[in-house]
Amino acid sequence: MRVVLVGPPGAGKGTQAQFIASNLSIPKISTGDIFRANVSGGTELGKLAKEYMDRGDLVPDEVTVAMVRDRLGEPDAQEGFLLDGFPRNVPQAQILNKMLAEFGTHLDVVLELVVDDEEVVRRLAGRRTCRSCGKVWHVVFDPPSKDGVCDACGGDLFQRDDDREETIRHRLEVYQQQTAPLISFYADEGILHGVDATGPVEEITQRAMAELRRFAD
To answer: HEC states along the chain?
Structure first.
């Protein structure tokens, strides 16, 4: 099965992508993982991507498209995949369709994780990251024993620039302007399925898999 996962930042795409891909026995292909690896490695691509990501803006299409094309050409993606973080806008979706046509295939389903803006802000603005080991805590959902100190290694916790409320709200504005039109695009193609992305992670996964099973049937 060839799946695209869409939804606003903070909808839980990364978490759900892992569970869904595992359940379907297909690779999870995340542009976010690729960007983060380049940022932490200090590559030229990483430095460029970080400038956009820190502002809450999107990485330029040409950079993203080149990475995705290479990844979809790898052997493990030939029988199916789950794309998380791509496409982010209608032009990318059109490029993806052409790309898959060149590979002699097409998308089967686009799964939308549905969550409102205030829930997104609550989820993301509460995150705190350890400067030493990188573990992420949450002031409400997963707080450390001592405020500002990582339970895992004793390192200092900080709020990343892209987890600040003003940046999150900007990211949501960018999403509405550039990514939300994907919903209409894929609805018109008849392959869009929405899933309520609120509640426990396990329940969201169950809803997602139920949708996918209905589609497959």
So the answer is: CEEEEECCCCCCHHHHHHHHHHHHCCCEEEHHHHHHHHHHHCCHHHHHHHHHHHHCCCCCHHHHHHHHHHHHCCHHHCCCEEEECCCCCHHHHHHHHHHHHHCCCCCCEEEEEECCHHHHHHHHHCEEEECCCCCEEECCCECCCECCECCCCCCEEECCHHHCHHHHHHHHHHHHHHHCHHHHHHHHHCCEEEEECCCCHHHHHHHHHHHHHHHHC
Query: Cβ(167)–Cβ(120) under 8 Å?
Result: no
Q: Return the active site residues.
A: 13, 88, 127, 160, 171
Q: pLDDT tens for residues 125-142?
A: 999 999 999 999 999 999
For residues 147 and 156, the answer to whether their CB atoms sit within 8 Å is no
Whose tokens are 């302007």? That residue is 177
Residue with tokens 């969201």: 204
Q: Is 171 annotated as a binding residue?
A: yes
- The pTM (predicted TM-score) of the whole model is 0.78
Asked if residue 161 belongs to a known ligand binding site, the reply is no
Please determine, for residue 217, whether its predicted confidence score (pLDDT) is greater than 70: no
Q: What is the pLDDT of residues 138-155, one digit of tens each?
A: 999 999 999 999 999 999
DSSP string, 33-55: HHHHHHHHHT-HHHHHHHHHHHH
Tell whether 128 is in a known binding site: no
End-to-end CA distance of the chain: 12
